[in-house]
Amino acid sequence: MINLKLPDGSVRQVEGPIDGFAFAESIAKSLAKKALAIKIDGKVKDLSTVIDRDAIVEIVTPQTDDGLEILRHDCAHVMAEAVQELFPGTQVTIGPVIENGFYYDFARAEPFKAEDLEKIEAKMREIVDRNEKITREVWGRDEAIAYFKKIGEHYKAEIIESIPAGEEVSVYRQGDWLDLCRGPHLPSTGKLGKAFKLTKLAGAYWRGDSRNEMLQRIYGTCWATEADLKAYLTMVEEAERRDHRKIGREMDLFHLQEEAQGSVFWHPKGWRIWQALEQYVRRRIDASGYVEVRTPQLLDSKFWEQSGHWGKYRENMFVVPDEVPGTDEDAPVLSGKAKLMAIKPMNCPAHVQIFRQGVKSYRDLPLRMAEFGCCHRNEAHGALHGLMRVRQMTQDDAHIFCTEDQIKDETSAFVSLLESVYDDMGFTDLKVRLALRPEQRVGSDETWDRAEKALEEALNDIGREYTLAPGEGAFYGPKLEFHLKDAIGRSWQLGTLQLDFNLPERLDASYIGEDGQKHRPVMLHRAILGSLERFIGILIEHYEGRFPLWLAPVQAVVATITSDADDYAQKVAEELRAAGLRVELDLRNEKINYKVREHSVGKVPAILVAGKREAEENTLSVRRLGSQEQKTMALSDVIASLRQEATPPDLR
């Protein structure tokens, strides 16, 4: 007999060995009917997996995150099978699950067309109806390479060749079709259902390297039910309407161009939003006891070697040789022999250097060190996406140096600050995840045990609900992730709090304790907005460009009906600016309805109309964005009302 513990804490004693399907059936036949896979001691396995020992188990259904991931994984395989049935000779390469869906990259001489997606979807539905059995097979590495080369799947053969010798090669057979895959998978294609849709075509380099051949990528989405699919597609339509790149153009906020991949050209209006945000955050952290610093962009590689980034993160760094480039046309620009430096991808090693200047005492802790640090990360060109994924970013970054006894209080204070900031920004739906140790990490297991326990106890003590995310911590320590939902229900991971025992050790940071001995501080890496670029992109889409007045790049426009009111309009604009408002003046010889339409497209919150009568009565006709109504108000009342509304939340 074996004891199997369920998520609700109950233990079922069954005769072993037993496979996942039989165990689900022993609980309820209805559960077995819904079952997609089984989770054994935290790892998702095929439903056919045999359990022969005591374990913690969970039946994976479509309503769980694990179940949804399996559905999307299988949908990618069903799509690949459909493509190869419809277009013989096409090679399948890599097809992972991504947020809200999946993609597969294909090698095919002839390009896919948009109308091909409907044909592929129809074939996918046919494969679901065939209810093909899905089984896992383990092949020898050489056998697998030879097979895939024989059938013309050279990309698959190349993937297998990169697998270390001795490591098992897992192949899943789906009816007569098969593919290299680690799994897990559904028991059969019929379990997939038909709540899927292929969404778009794109190009992609093999293995993300622009030096490699171009492949064709097909994206799709898959959900547990048709209702979920319909809701998602509706959200996608709304997201396209709110696309920050489109609104950014309409509002003249920023632009991007090929000559500066992943870096933003901020226009005056966009920079006003940036400044309003930065000034707000600066006031909040000043009030919370942070000191602000500034550190270099370019640091010797030795710092990154000592910190561990060089070995674990180097592929994401811009590396720069420390030499004067050659100017001889017949000689190489760089010698290849110079010492290497790197443009900082993060601020933490530099902040430790400041901490190490002079002797620190336990009385100096906690030391909260903040920086609006400009960082660079070498993201692949294909991964870049407007403000949401950039190469140059500025973070509202800070590091708290503290003792272990101070972790709980510092975590509590940070979570309170973060929640208050998000509330001021208009985000109230917040979830917390505790991300635990990844496979690639630095530090001993004992250190990780202490770090994970400290964060978990802090969350429990402050009464904050959270979920666990095994394997998703930073390479140097566990972290709290803060996920918020925007106006159309999308979830964004923004703020983080990362607990780090390792970096102070690696970079030799210490303080003198009450006992007169040297001790290592704990280092808390934390951000609230994260990348300001990304946060502004999220704000644009959340508000659809209709910012609250305190964040709006132009808070009001004074527009004239006729030239008779020009002098009065100029006087109004001057008084509004003197009151601290961001105001533009529109004296163009255009009809007022044209002006109103244009400024409405530009998402100006308040349009103040001045004509001859308004000039005589010292009033304004006020039209607010999104309203067709106009209200006549005295100039003094307009100024008082707008000034109050434009005051940042922390100053009210």
Structural class: alpha+beta
Q: How far apart lie the N and C ends?
A: 66 Å
Q: Roughly how much helix do the residues carry, as a percent range? A: 25-40%
Tell me, briefly, the overall form.
globular
Total beta strands: 35
Rg over C-alpha atoms, rounded to the nearest angstrom: 29 Å
**Could you report the average pLDDT, rounded to the nearest whole number?**
93
Query: What portion of residues belong to β-strands?
Result: 25-35%
Largest sheet: 8 strands, mixed
Task: Please state how the strands of the largest beta sheet are arranged side by side.
Answer: 18-22-23-30-27-26-24-25
Uncertain segments: none
Structure description:
The protein is of the alpha+beta class. It is built from 20 helices and 35 strands. Strands 18-22-23-30-27-26-24-25 form an eight-stranded mixed β-sheet. Strands 2-1-7-4-5 form a five-stranded mixed β-sheet. Strands 8, 9, 10, 14 and 15 form a five-stranded antiparallel β-sheet that branches. A hairpin with a 5-residue loop joins strand 1 (2-5) and strand 2. The longest helix has 22 residues, at 65-86. The N and C termini lie far apart (66 Å). The mean pLDDT is 93.
